[in-house]
Amino acid sequence: MPQQSSSQFSTPSQFSGTLYDIRWNEVCLPLILVRALRVSVLVRVLGLSLVGVLLTEWGWSWFDQIFESGAAHLTPLTDLLPYQTTSGLVERATDWTSWRDPLTCAWSWLSEPLVRSARLDSGWQQSMVLILSGIWAIVVWALLGGAISRIAALYLTRGETLGPLMALKEAFQKWPALIGATLIPLIGSALLALPMVLAGLMLRSDFMALVIGLCWIVVILWGFVLAVILIGLLIGWPLMWATVGVERTDAFDGVSRCYAYVYQRPMHLILYLALAIALGWLGQFGVTYFALSAASLGEWAVSWGAGRDTLATLLAPVAMEASGVELDAADGVSGLVVSGAAGIRFWKATLRLGVASYAVAYLWSASVGIYLLLRRQIDATEMDEVVIDEGSEESLHGLPPLHADPSGVPNIDATGGA
Question: CA–CA separation, 415 vs 418, rounded Å?
Answer without folding.
Answer: 5
